[in-house]
Amino acid sequence: MSINPAPLRRVREFEREQAVLIPAHERPLFHLTPLVGWMNDPNGFCWYNGQYHLFYQYHPFSRSWGPMHWGHAVSKDLLHWTYEPCALAPDTAADAGGCFSGSAVPMPDGRLMLMYTGVQPAGTFRRETQAQCVAFGDGVNFEKSLLNPVIRHAHLPQKGYSPFDFRDPKVWQDEKDGLYYLVAGNRHEERQGTIVLFSSRDGLDWQFRGELDASSSEYGRMWECPDFFPLGEKQVLIVSPQEMHAREEFHAGYGTVALIGTYDKAHCRFVREEVRPVDHGLNFYAPQTVQAPDGRRIMIGWMDNWETCKEAPRRHAWYGQMSAPREVTLENGRLMQRPVREFETLWQDTVTHENITVQQETALPGVSGRLLDLSVTLYADSSSCRRFILRVARGEGHYVQILCELARGELVFDRSRGGSHRDIAHTRHVTAEMRDGRLSLRLLMDKESVELFINGGERVVTSLIPTPLESDGITFAADAPIRVDVTAHHLG
Ligand code: FRU
Known about the structure:
Blueprint: H1 5-19, E1 37-48, E2 51-59, E3 69-75, E4 82-88, E5 99-106, E6 112-120, E7 129-137, E8 142-144, E9 166-173, E10 180-188, E11 192-200, E12 206-214, E13 223-231, E14 234-241, E15 257-264, E16 269-277, E17 285-291, E18 297-302, H2 308-311, E19 318-319, E20 326-331, E21 334-339, E22 347-358, E23 371-379, E24 387-395, E25 398-405, E26 410-414, E27 427-431, E28 438-446, E29 449-454, E30 459-464, E31 473-478, E32 482-491
Parallel strand pairs: 1-19
Antiparallel strand pairs: 1-2, 2-3, 3-4, 5-6, 6-7, 7-8, 9-10, 10-11, 11-12, 13-14, 14-15, 15-16, 17-18, 18-20, 20-21, 22-32, 23-28, 23-32, 24-25, 24-31, 25-26, 26-27, 28-29, 29-30
């Protein structure tokens, strides 16, 4: 029960009326879309009472961003989602300007705790302020604390921290000391994007424990949507910076960054050792992870960003989708991502072409479609081939191109012929080097998106494609004969 249930009741009624008007075939197969209206960031991704819960930034009343609610869906396998009614609406003084991003943690007493950012309409500061709020519930209905906001600007050390950019708490419970910890983003006057750490015994009374890391204007301005978790021998801090400058492997604009390092829990000190992009695609932002009951670390992001969503077509009654769930691991110090193994349960007809030689542009029997898990392995051994071209979503005047510059060790993802009528970024250049004489590509295609995993997930390119669904051809070509293996699992 919310403290002021009327707005939430209205949203839930609206959902009941409107959601039935959206037929299942109007949605992707396995990517989560909003029940109705608009979706952005994943929120509250957790395993609770025998299933995954995924909440999301939600504006039910239109296909554009608006006063933020939390939508909600549950799943046992991360691929088939069942909608739950809207979980949070902006209906208290602490969050009247919106319930922004946050997270969830199961409590020892059986309740689920949601930590989220309450936006408070302009008051003394003449600008909206942001502070952290808590709600407790049973996995469907949540009661917001009367003490909200439970973490305010005043909880931060005196100097430099912003009351306006202070958001996106990611909470967890420490197994050893039993305390709740959370990280949140703040924009500091000097250090720009910073990640601050708090701890609490009960989720209500929070203490500032330190600052874990900062952009110092190197990696963008504000750091949004942090996540912080151990992985292998290391600790990973994931942030989504705004306004990055292109540098190293990072593209300009809204990015996703993994800071890999070590964590000294006793002193709450994170030491950064490596900085890497999480995803190189055109549409990926604000990811959040969960630890599965079997120990896997699983990540889902918003398959969009604040620049790309502005120009995107609104073809359906809903707008916005989550990325595919990926298992993340650390291998040789590198963050690897692979589609979760549950995808195998969607494989239907499998077509394999092994050890074939490709040069002139060619289609392969049984290899086409827009619902596919497609693997392509290129072998360098036999060949003087320097350039390989894979085109997907091919049809009348359209294709999405994956160009492998084998000699240069670079891949160019290009959707500029993919059906867009907007003059926005459509290409990405990504390092893609041969490993032991081979380059492997795995593509997940789910109607209007492509997620490309290079060399077992060492780099990922996630992109929406606006291509009409009738364009479902796939072709292979190279500038000299090259040996290739192709496996296409149709998904259903
Ligand atoms: C990230 C973000 C968050 C914020 C939310 C608002 O995409 O800007 O920082 O909480 O979206 O919807």
